[in-house]
Amino acid sequence: MAQSAPAFNDATIVLCIAFILAVPFAGAGLSFINTGLGRSRSAAQMMMCSLGVAAVAALTYFAVGFAWQGYLDSQGYFFLVGGRPWNWIAAERFFLRGVPLNGSSASLAVWLEMFSVGIAAMIPLGSALDRWRLSAACLSTAIFAGWTYPIFAHWVWGGGWLAALGANYGLGRGFIDAGGASTIHAVGGLTALSIVWILGPRRGKYTREGLPTAIPGHHAVYVMIGCLLALVGWIGLNSAGALLFTGINSGDTVLVAVNTLLCAAAAGVTAAIVTKIRFRKPDASLSANGWVGGLVASSAACAYMQPPEAVVVGAIAGGIVTLSIEWFELRLGIDDPGGAISAHGLSGLWGVLAAGIFGGAAAASGNAPAGQGQFTAQLVGIATLLGFVLPTTYGLNWLLDRFHPQRVAPEGERQGLDLYELGAGAYPEFQTHSDDLAQR
Predict the structure, then answer these.
(1) Which of 35, 106, 121, 363 could form a disulfide with 368 if both were Cys (CB 3.0 to 4.6 A apart)?
(2) What pLDDT sits at residue 278?
């Protein structure tokens, strides 16, 4: 049967509110990580971009995003395929009209989504470091929060056709994603890939022979602080999502929190070991990306896995992130200084797949998805991400680039985005490096 909106008692409402209040720490963590992995002369612009896209995402989602996404039991538009209804978009009213903001599960979902869409919109910032215009990032976010994100989120969390694969076609419980491995992170990571394709690599990143040069981040401490903040936010995000979108019991949020922590820990340790083997010393930035990748991979099945399974999922995510970042840079010429495509995009896809592999085990809550067909349902979701979301987000941003060029002018890259776009640097008492000696 299709998932219905859960009815919460007062204690569960308070618990859910507490988890939602922790979610902004995830956004703060990503902001610190992105800033630390970028150059010092663009640090203030990076933080301004984070605030800007979070604000634009929330306003756009308030205006039109929720109307397209809806929530469980919302009305929607559908068409019939083989006599089965395919719900493809919600039929809610704009500007949250008709949504009672009174502590109901629907109102809590709206609040959580206004944070979640901002976090998803921050993901491309890490890939576009040091070359994405502030205005272009905000315009791209408006498209993302007004169309790309809510459409796919409706299919997963709003009673759409992916969630109904179980009821309509007997594929387990339908596509499952408790905390947003697909809706937030894979969608954000695929958008990051689209933006990087459009922007191209940073000036001086590749030599004339096509070999990459190292452009290290300017503040490893920011990156590590961001990892710790992200852990707090992810526990809130996964727990609130599991309560609102999978209907787990409030006590089962302990399992969600433990799985989230174990995934991150296993991924971070794996990344450190892999970099130790490859480079003789552990790499801080790659270990941090592995940590984030573990958090992302935990999200889909956090309410269904057992802790030993969470360790396995996290360890695999750490290896995927560490190796894929180098592969993207060396083999494909993709300049992703924040590692967002790997940490969010690939780890999100792995987390979705892991929900089909490990999610069939019986959880203590009894809410584990049916094993038969669940793996197929997850594969259908991954195919939708790659076959619909990626070309859609690329096409929309390509059109935006035709009317409003997204890459900053060459002078802005040489000068630094802080001075070029904001008129002041993040560190006025210190000298920042220029590109005068960089390979052109």
Answers:
(1) 363
(2) 92
